[in-house]
Amino acid sequence: MADVTADDGALRRFLHGLPGVDAVGLEARAATLGTRSIKTTAKAYAIDLAISMIDLTTLEGADTPGKVRALCAKGIHPDPTDRTSPKVAAICVYPDMVATAKEALGDSGVHVASVATAFPAGRAALPVKLADTRDAVAAGADEIDMVIDRGAFLSGRYMEVFEEIKAVKEACARPGGTSQTESGGGSAAHLKVIFETGELQTYDNVRRVSWLAMLAGADFIKTSTGKVAVNATPPVTLLMLEAVRDFHAATGVQVGVKPAGGIRTTKDAIKYLVMVNETLGERWLTADWFRFGASSLLNDLLMQRQKLSTGRYSGPDYVTVD
């Protein structure tokens, strides 16, 4: 496709030239996909798949090294009584807890994700955001979850948001290494770009910001911080999946998707997996390309997993409190 990011005018014309979103059709399609029936064998597979896609998260001011270590232990062995349970994809923490998480996870294969760029508001000068990112990467973060400047986007300052994402992507390079694009991913943290879709007002804005982030080099696009009233919803996630599909068709570049916030039950998680399969296909049904940003979701998945294997519902007292 032509270079639509050559200047602010070209980027603006491209983003506003994207087809308008049929809100009624989008919501109806999301609702229809949510009614698909999943049988016992498929449900067991879906539960394990969902567990393996979780970014197990603690992002509180009261986080301590002990809490982070306990969360890492749970991420490696979600059900201590059943070592057949898969590991989660990542542990997501603030930058100052990255080193603690990295040490606790060791060679388990569970990644360390770190929020950055003045999470969750994103209200800071660019040099501060880049320093935040570089500190997390230097401490060992495998993935960076950045937040866009929603004020800039809603004001129509698209190139400003585009350049900021590009700059953060460059900051994801390891010290002394190269950018992920140049290295093929070996020496850089993956970049997830958070939109905070609950603040973007329209579906058209969600489509525009999805394309904007992908054009700027996002490895993942992510719905929310989990810190506002409206977080991930099926229609918004479906719209982002469709944007990823169309971007892949136009460029050949595969981008991941991460709904975050408000996904608490196994039933909800399976609805999202059906949505991914129907929109993008099996190629995206791995933790490399789809994640759940969640904390309480894992406990419900574990309870449903225990019920399938034992025939008994154990209840919340049988899983650890995060």
Q: Would you give an account of this structure?
A:
- With 322 residues, the chain is an alpha/beta fold.
- The chain has one domain (8-310): Aldolase class I (TIM Barrel), CATH 3.20.20.
- The protein is 47% helix and 10% strand.
- An eight-stranded parallel beta sheet has the order 7-6-5-4-3-2-1-8.
- 46% of the residues are buried.
Provide the descriptors you would attach to this structure in a database record.
single chain, 322 residues, alpha/beta, TIM Barrel, eight-stranded parallel sheet
Judging by the overall fold, what is the CATH architecture? Answer: Alpha-Beta Barrel
User: How many whole angstroms does the radius of gyration measure?
Assistant: 19 Å
**How many structural domains are formed by the residues?**
1
CATH class (first level) name: Alpha Beta
Structural class: alpha/beta
Count of distinct strands: 8
Low-confidence stretches: 178-185
Task: State the helicity in percent bands.
Answer: 40-55%
Q: What percentage of amino acids are in beta strands?
A: 5-15%
